[in-house]
Amino acid sequence: MRPWAGIFECTIVRPHTRAQTFAGYLVFPRWAQNGVGIVGHVETGTLAEGSSSEDVTEELGRLTLMDVQRLLEEAITRAAENRVDG
Q1: How far apart are CA 64 and CA 43, in angstroms?
Q2: Which residues contact 85 (CB under 8 A, 6 or more apart)?
Q3: Where are the alpha helices (DSSP H) in the chain?
Q4: Beta 7-13 vs 38-43: how paired, if at all?
């Protein structure tokens, strides 16, 4: 079993204006070796912004599998660097 799986998240970001902005990013949960539960996660930065969750979801949906794999690898590297530095 591979320990990483991908899901996307779309949240409301409220900048200093009254307008609602939606932001999308990817969250990659890390599964336990036995597959019973999640033991951690990594996430990307904001990948898409828009005026509706549908706009953001559509933009995230344009990511290719290769894009997602690269983003996962970058997130894992960043998390490992933060553990060493932090």
Answers
A1: 17
A2: none
A3: 53-61, 65-85
A4: unpaired
Has this prediction a pTM greater than 0.85?
A: no
Q: In whole angstroms, what is the distance from residue 61 CA to residue 53 CA? A: 12
Sign of the four-CA dihedral 11, 65, 70, 67? negative
pLDDT in tens, the chain (86 residues): 456 665 655 555 555 566 678 888 888 888 888 878 888 889 999 999 888 888 888 998 899 989 999 999 999 999 988 887 65
Rg (CA), the chain: 15
Alpha-carbon span 84 to 69, nearest angstrom:
23
Burial class of residue 71 in the structure, from the number of CB atoms within 10 Å of its CB (0-12 exposed, 13-18 middle, 19+ buried): buried
